[in-house]
């Protein structure tokens, strides 16, 4: 899935627009504690998030759940296959 948007902290009058693509299953499984990636914020702009724990997978289904941290105190889960998780992205070059 491709997304075209700006970064969250770009406060210019005409911010630069970037293209982002969602991470694949292999890239999600390769993430480890401390890695940084991107997610789409509530305001429609990209924000950086940090992987906060171990990547969780299940044998019975193809879901991936990754604990992430953003901001000072906000924590959430990113990944694929579950209903209330954030989609993680990478910048296309």
Describe this structure in words.
The structure is a single chain. With 93 residues, the chain is mostly beta strands. It has one domain (2-91). 6% of the residues lie in helices and 43% in strands. The chain contains 1 helix and 8 strands; from the N terminus they run ββαββββββ. The protein has one helix at 25-30; strands spanning 2-5, 18-22, 36-40, 46-51, 56-57, 64-70, 74-80, 88-91. Strands 1, 2, 3, 4, 5, 6, 7 and 8 form an 8-stranded antiparallel beta sheet that branches. Strand 5 (56-57) and strand 6 form a beta hairpin. The protein is globular. The mean pLDDT is 85.
Kindly summarize this structure in a few lines.
The protein is mainly beta and 93 residues long. Helices cover 6% and strands 43% of the residues. It has one domain (2-91).
